[in-house]
Amino acid sequence: MELFYRPGKAVLGDVIPFYDEGKFKPFFLKQARGQKGPGDRTGWFMLTTEDHLHFTEHDTGLTGGTGSVIKVDGLYHLFYCTFVENPREQFIRHATSVDLDQWRTLDEVLPADGKIYDPAEWRDPFVFWNQEAGEWWMLIATAKVGRTERWACVGLCASKDLHHWEYREPFYAPMAAAGACECPDLFKMGDWYYLVYSNYGDRFQTMYRMSKALHGPWTAPVKDDAFDSCAYYAAKTGADGVNRYIYGWNPTKELPKK
């Protein structure tokens, strides 16, 4: 039993919740932290669990940063991000699978446009179907192009087919923090939409905003706009049709024991 799941000698990073065919199948980013040995790979892994206490781990074979997973007409789509260090650029990638076991990385690469969004801050795609607009929307952790550092926002792209994307103005742009609004997540509960995101520039917390409509305005709750405390980070939610759960991580500085 693992109340706080830890993948062997490695550590667990961002969790990407997913519920499919009666089971929770949260994906996560596995970081080996310099450990070497069979299976000590850094990248996307999937867990299967029926109770969030007992887990089975599966390697996807994919390497990259946070994203999201959806199922459309029997085909699984996984959106994630990759990075270039010099010059610093980030890109959104797309992979598909028929069984969640073997993944095929598509040739599609979605960079920031450089006009609305900063190519150095362009990651963590969250894809969902906007019934009202009749199109797919992708929320992105990004920053607007501007003259100051406080341009962190949740970007927006739209698509009719999950393959060709149009850049739109930011979904949420408080213009109050540096970096990016990381790991965006969106869901509706009752009459309210909830936008969840994290920011490391000012508070290092997972926060949320509320709105009665997707186009806003997005407001903060009166008393407390954060989940848990400082350092509970990159949290995203997942639901089974009845209950909604939030998955995040707490930082650790030590290397896993060999």
Description:
By secondary structure, the protein is mostly beta strands. 0% of the residues lie in helices and 53% in strands. The protein has no helices and 20 strands. The strands form six sheets. A four-stranded antiparallel sheet has the order 1-4-5-6, with no helix packed on it. A hairpin with a 2-residue loop joins strand 2 and strand 3. The relative contact order is 0.13. The model has no long low-confidence stretch (mean pLDDT 92).
> What is the straight-line distance between the termini?
21 Å
Radius of gyration: 18 Å
Q: How many helices in DSSP terms? A: 0
Q: Summarize the amount of helix as a percent range.
A: under 10%
Strand order of the largest sheet: 1-4-5-6
| Strand residues, percent | over 45%
Task: Give unreliable regions as ranges.
Answer: none
Structural class designation = mainly beta
Q: Can you tell me the overall shape?
A: globular
